[in-house]
């Protein structure tokens, strides 16, 4: 039986802004026009002419003539140009050197640029010099570039199509390029498909004509089922951002080249199960419940960002068991809390709230009695963590004397004084502000006894956690006149929604400022969260670092350079590292660096290895018992 031979596929690839990130003549201009006072203006003119030529507004020959005229370049400037272009090869071409060299016989670089700089660049990735079709410069006797070889079809309009016609390629022809002249090959009936390459530049007029858009060479290879660099093309990484996360986050992920989907509100369990299937990175705020059931359908999920402080809405154990790293933004609103505390201290020590209330009733009570400056007053901070320390610095700037007490031995900032015990602090301070964490031992940390130890007329604030202050003791202290002013932002029982009534014995008490847990709620804090969380997620995706993760062992890793990084997440059982190293030894793999950290549930091993190794290594590492997830970074 006669079988039809498999058809050969030929790849026609453009050079400027496709193989390299830049237009070579723009770069040549930057070199040749150095020292000219009108350099910027001329460079801009060159760019405009390039764009007009590439999008088909003016003929190619005109665009080339005009540019060379402005450039006034010289042969001696070409080595510098080549050196710069070497560093500007498109990322996805660099990643896929293997594809270029293995298919060298059927890859053609067809460009309206110049062989003098194209050949050294493309041959460095395995393309054959004889498969480069481009123009050549003409020089005068002194080496000045004065024009180009007019006999070369590529120096004229429609030149690319002419070259392909002459090649008489027998098989499928795919064209990859960013310009209109690349599309023209397909338009002339000489190619089967035109891929608009948009990794470096996106020309709407060209994209409009394309059969497919290729945001990278990986995408082109993926589309054609061709072997590609194993590193995952970023545009295939899907990010799902819910609950109106700050636009900065969207921008940061898009700049990384990820495919970002945004939904305004939270999703319920069923909706999230549907939406999460192909998602690699999920960003939520406090209303999206990430349950174990949802996670069962999250087969691609690598990491979750909580764009808020708390992570109660996330089933952290289930995430850990699935090898999903969770990050949040614990400190992004520190400054906001500090500013509210300072504002309240001043309002309370001046009795502004009762005075304002009287004014609203029409009463004018002008008096200096019991109104004080904060300058020179003793501020006692209970808890000297992120917020406590920052408040310490700002309060000192206002002339307050800062005293602090922390269960952990903390370094005093500025002139702050450390107290040996809570009792010592309570006795010395004129104003007391609570900034401890919410651990359960801190329940009723401040109760009747503690109020008894305080000075009469104390100003008392709690903007940390509701349960650390015994509210009945506080109300008692207010009614006895022990406490002169109170600022409370957090409560043992808080309404779950804005529709629920706020119930508290503090309601109606004089000189008491009550706020609905908004210490950290500012636009700036939201923006900080919007950039902080993506930073953490990207560090994890791109580098493997888990520093700041709420459920993963924390590892801060050096940037990946000159090696491959293997990330192995496994149940925390003995012997995994030994098994991994046995595999490395078996295949004689040279390890550049290895890092291991465990928590009570999982182990996280990062191994940086030399670039060349057999594919079986990866398979064997994945097959180690108790492996939860395996990832490879290039
Ligand atoms: N009101 C708001 O909107 C809002 C916003 C952000 C943070 N917070 C709360 O503010 C508090 C402080 O936040 P942070 O970022 O500074 O936390 P942090 O963890 O950096 O600091 C807490 C400090 O309290 C200390 N501490 C714990 N128990 C103590 C005790 N019994 N006595 C003395 N020191 C004790 C810890 O050692 C630690 O240094 C937290 O409870 C946080 O939940 C509230």
Folded structure, characterized:
- By secondary structure, this protein is an alpha/beta fold.
- The protein has a seven-stranded parallel β-sheet with strand order 16-15-14-17-18-19-20, with helices on both faces. A six-stranded parallel β-sheet has the order 3-2-1-6-7-8, sandwiched between helices.
- Helix 2 runs antiparallel to helix 3 and helix 3 packs antiparallel against helix 4.
- The longest helix is centred in the C-terminal third of the chain and has 21 residues.
- The protein is elongated, with a radius of gyration of 33 Å.
- It binds nicotinamide-adenine-dinucleotide.
- Nicotinamide-adenine-dinucleotide binds next to helix 17 and helix 19.
What is shown here, in short?
This protein is α/β, with parallel strands linked by helices.
Shape assignment? elongated
Mean pLDDT across every amino acid position:
92
Bound molecules: nicotinamide-adenine-dinucleotide
Helix percent band: 25-40%
How far is the first residue's CA from the last residue's CA?
A: 46 Å
């Amino acid at each position: 039986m006669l079988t039809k031979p498999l058809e050969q596929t030929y790849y026609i690839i453009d050079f400027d802004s496709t193989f390299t990130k830049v237009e070579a003549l723009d770069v040549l201009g930057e070199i040749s026009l150095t020292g000219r006072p009108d350099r910027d203006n001329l460079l801009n003119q060159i760019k405009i002419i390039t764009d007009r030529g590439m999008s088909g507004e003016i003929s190619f020959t005109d665009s080339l003539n005009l540019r060379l005229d402005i450039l006034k370049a010289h042969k001696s400037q070409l080595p510098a140009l080549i050196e710069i272009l070497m560093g500007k090869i498109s990322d996805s071409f660099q990643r896929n050197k293997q594809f270029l060299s293995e298919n060298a016989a059927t890859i053609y670089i067809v460009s309206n640029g110049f062989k003098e700089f194209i050949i050294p660049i493309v041959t460095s990735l395995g393309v054959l010099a004889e498969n480069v079709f481009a123009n050549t410069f003409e020089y005068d006797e002194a080496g000045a570039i004065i024009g180009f070889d007019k006999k070369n079809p590529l120096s004229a309009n429609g030149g690319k199509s002419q070259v392909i016609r002459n090649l008489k390629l027998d098989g499928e022809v795919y064209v990859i390029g960013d310009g209109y002249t690349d599309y023209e090959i397909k338009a002339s009936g000489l190619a089967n498909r035109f891929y608009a390459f948009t990794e470096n530049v996106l020309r709407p007029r060209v994209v409009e004509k394309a059969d497919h858009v290729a945001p990278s060479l990986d995408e082109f290879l993926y589309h054609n089922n061709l072997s590609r660099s194993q590193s995952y093309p970023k545009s295939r990484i899907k990010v799902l951002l819910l609950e109106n996360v700050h636009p900065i986050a969207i921008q940061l992920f898009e700049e990384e080249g990820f495919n970002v989907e945004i939904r305004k509100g939270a999703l319920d369990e069923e909706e999230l199960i549907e939406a999460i299937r192909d998602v690699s990175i999920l960003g939520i705020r406090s209303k999206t419940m990430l349950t174990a059931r949802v996670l069962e359908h999250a087969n691609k999920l690598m990491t979750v960002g909580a764009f808020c402080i708390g992570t109660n809405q996330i089933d952290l154990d289930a995430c850990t068991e699935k090898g999903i790293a969770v990050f949040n933004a614990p400190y992004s609103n520190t400054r906001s809390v500090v500013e509210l505390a300072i504002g309240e201290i001043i309002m309370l020590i001046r009795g502004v709230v009762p005075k304002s209330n009287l004014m609203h009733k029409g009463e004018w009570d002008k008096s200096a009695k019991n109104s004080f400056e904060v300058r020179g007053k003793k501020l006692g901070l209970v808890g000297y963590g992120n917020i406590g320390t920052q408040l310490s610095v700002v309060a000192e700037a206002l002339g307050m004397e800062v005293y602090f007490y922390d269960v952990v031995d903390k370094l005093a900032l500025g002139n702050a004084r450390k107290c040996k015990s809570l009792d010592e602090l309570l006795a010395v301070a004129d104003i007391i502000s609570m900034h401890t964490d919410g651990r359960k031992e801190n329940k009723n940390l401040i109760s009747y006894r503690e109020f008894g130890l305080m000075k009469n007329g104390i100003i008392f604030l709690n903007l940390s956690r509701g349960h650390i202050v015994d509210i009945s003791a506080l109300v008692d202290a207010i009614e006895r006149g022990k406490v002169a002013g109170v600022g409370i932002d957090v409560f043992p029982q808080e309404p779950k929604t804005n529709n629920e009534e706020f119930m508290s014995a503090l309601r109606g008490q004089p000189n008491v400022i009550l706020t609905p847990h908004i210490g950290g709620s500012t636009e700036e804090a939201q923006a900080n969260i919007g950039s902080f969380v993506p930073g953490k997620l990207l560090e994890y995706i791109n580098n493997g670092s888990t520093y700041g993760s709420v459920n993963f062992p924390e590892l801060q890793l050096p940037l990946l350079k000159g090696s491959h990084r293997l990330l192995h997440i496994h149940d925390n059982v003995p012997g995994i590292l030994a098994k991994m190293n046995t595999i490395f030894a078996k295949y004689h793999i040279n390890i550049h660096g290895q890092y291991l950290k465990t928590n009570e549930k999982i182990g996280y091993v990062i191994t940086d290895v030399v670039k060349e190794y057999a594919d079986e290594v990866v398979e064997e590492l994945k097959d180690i018992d108790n492996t939860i997830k395996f990832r490879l970074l290039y």
